Amino acid sequence: MEIKSKLAGKVGKIVVSKGSVVSEGDKICFVESTKLTQPIKSDVAGKITKILVKQGDEITAGDVVCKVEEVSAGKADKQVTITSSFVGKVGKLNVAVGDKIEVGDVFFKVENGKLTQPFKSTEAGTIAKILVQEGDDIKTKDELVVINVNGGEETFESTLKFDLKSTVPILTVGKISAGVGDVVNEGDIILKVEAGKLSEPVKAKETCKIVKFLVKEGDAVKNGDAFAEVEKASAKKAPKKAVERGEIKCDLAILGSGPGGYQAAIYAAKQNLNVVVIEKGHLGGTCLNVGCIPTKSLIHCADVYRYSITSEDFGVTNRNTSYDLKGMVAHKDAVVSELRNGVGTLFEHGGITLVRGKGEFVDANTVKVTGEENAVVKFDKCIIATGSSIAKLPIEGIDLDCVWDSDKVLSNTEEFDSITIVGGGVIGMEFASIFSTLGKTVNVVEFLPEILAVVDDDMIDVVKSNIQVNYFFNSGVKKIEKKDGKAIVTYEHEGKLSSLESDKVLVAVGRHANIKGVNLEAAGVKLDERGRAIKIDDYLKTNVDNIYAIGDVTAKLQLAHVASNQGFCAVDNILGNKRKMDYINVPSVIFTHPEIATIGWSEKMLIKEGVKYTVKKAPFLSNGKALSMGATQGFVKLIQDAKTKKIIGGGIIGADAGNLIATLTVQISNNIDADSVAQTVFAHPTLAEVVNDAERGFGHGSIHGLDE
Ligand SMILES: Cc1cc2nc3c(=O)[nH]c(=O)nc-3n(C[C@H](O)[C@H](O)[C@H](O)COP(=O)(O)OP(=O)(O)OC[C@H]3O[C@@H](n4cnc5c(N)ncnc54)[C@H](O)[C@@H]3O)c2cc1C
């Protein structure tokens, strides 16, 4: 068999050698064209017998890169080298050559200044080589550990046969204790066989998943008969016994440790309240585990890839740029786990009691907790911060394995070429931006006539011209099917059905407030008019005097900083310092390329409300820092109420917009006029000078502005 190139260019790094065993999709070598370095991947599984190219060779599509000999599937002894996603010093090794490991097992910790991050396996298998020692300095992409993925000559029997001690020729199948779909660990009893009064258990010899039973209770069987079909599976974890914590009394109980709950807890503890937090999942909630932080970690990986492929514009030669989803996901996991541990440490330092389990109200002063820990929490005040979860849309085919939601996509390490994203809102467009940067074909199917419904069109235009996406507007997805390994999305546009083909589908629409399972009725807490979120007043109080609610469960603005600020506000009100929550002067950032950041009123909102306004803009194009960064797209715009002359809104599209919006946030929240900001000295050369220049537009005129 031959592996042929589908690309033309210069051969870069060759990642296999003669004798390497490859699977379908494994990288063989890289090919460099003008700005892009792309891998040639194997389209067969087998052993490399000859490599016909060398680094630096010019090749064209169709050239044979190497020859491959077939090896029987399942016995392939594939080795995977795990590379570093960190910079730092190797800590104590937790593993040795020959150890069996699972995905997520920690090889060692990497120390970098005050930061210590676990370096985890992205593969399951046996450790073949460890290429570093304790104390070594490592950098990203260094090769650290080699894993035998299929465990060498180890074979897996997919049909289980009786191998009994009993010498009785005919036996009867007794109780079958495992079910189809169950994962059984080595030593778990699958069924029993009986001969008269004798009963012999049949145990699993290795971890596997039961696919089908070939016998039923009462069947006559003999030694050597097949009794079940199984498939490979990772070892299931034994359920832990709940820890009994009895009754816990506190001033303030907080249900949920997302950005709303955990920050409210720390703030309240600093004001000397005795606080208990109840959490059924990971500390940090949606934001830290499957929301803001993991998405922004992956966005940063995509940004690094973009810098890398455009590095020659800045005189930096970097011809072997490629990316590896496993490395990106490992970076994301390391960030998430570091922050999650950080929340735990803050709780310990703050004297906050954490109870791990699901909380439900018993009455307006009691929450019962069950799960990892069982407890009864008695409180004076309570804050409900249970957040939101993905709501499954009623679309046929939504459960197919090629369809992801925003939780699943974050852990995907499987390569793919094309994706259809259902929903052009914030989450959909952030993923569209990541995948388009990584060179994938991206389709966005949006029900509305435009993406990012609340954002002004002049800002949307900049994003659309910077990321390569195929848009299908005014289109509703009707069904998703899988045909020949591809996902087929059928959508309706102006009454006509059409379809799109891609490798994967991401459904990026629909979240619902976590109001179920909390037994709100027992505490007497009421929902809003639509019955979809907890009803609160301006002071975050529910209809029950001692119970408050914050964050996504209140469905005001589903943003992490709104949840945490509602939390501070709720604690202030609990302490008797009456404070209203402001939902207008809230910044919002969309981390596309480039970033969009807005605050206050948008033009779209003002037109709808019939309010007269004036806009001033200043571009990044003439800013020295932006030009030196090659980031000249976009502008800063300020919106002034034509009658009151107050600055009531602003938007920034361009590099670092998410950080730059802070100036406008302080200005608008504190009603600072444009002239005061214009006369403030801003450092040069900085992107922030564009903000300063836009402010001048309302006084003596912007220097570089696009006055309208
Ligand atoms: C993909 C994605 C990207 C996002 N990006 C951003 C962004 O860039 N910026 C931004 O501001 N926002 C972003 N968000 C939104 C942000 O994550 C949420 O607004 C924020 O997490 C809400 O915080 P919360 O504290 O209200 O709830 P959550 O973060 O949802 O936390 C609620 C917690 O309560 C726990 N819980 C629920 N019920 C119970 C119970 N009965 N007992 C015990 N515990 C319970 C849950 O396990 C969870 O840990 C993003 C969201 C997603 C999905």
Describe the structure.
It is built from 14 helices and 46 strands. It is of the alpha+beta class. It has six domains: about 70 residues, OB fold (Dihydrolipoamide Acetyltransferase, E2P) (Beta Barrel), CATH 2.40.50.100; about 70 residues, OB fold (Dihydrolipoamide Acetyltransferase, E2P) (Beta Barrel), CATH 2.40.50; about 70 residues, OB fold (Dihydrolipoamide Acetyltransferase, E2P); about 210 residues, 3-Layer(bba) Sandwich (FAD/NAD(P)-binding domain); about 90 residues, FAD/NAD(P)-binding domain, CATH 3.50.50.60; about 110 residues, FAD/NAD-linked reductase, C-terminal dimerisation domain (Enolase-like, domain 1), CATH 3.30.390. The strands form eleven sheets. Strands 25, 26, 27, 28, 29, 30 and 41 form a seven-stranded mixed beta sheet that branches. Helix 1 packs parallel to helix 4. The longest helix has 26 residues. It starts with a strand and ends in a 12-residue tail after the last helix. Flavin-adenine dinucleotide (FAD) binds next to helix 1, strand 26, helix 2, helix 3 and strand 28.
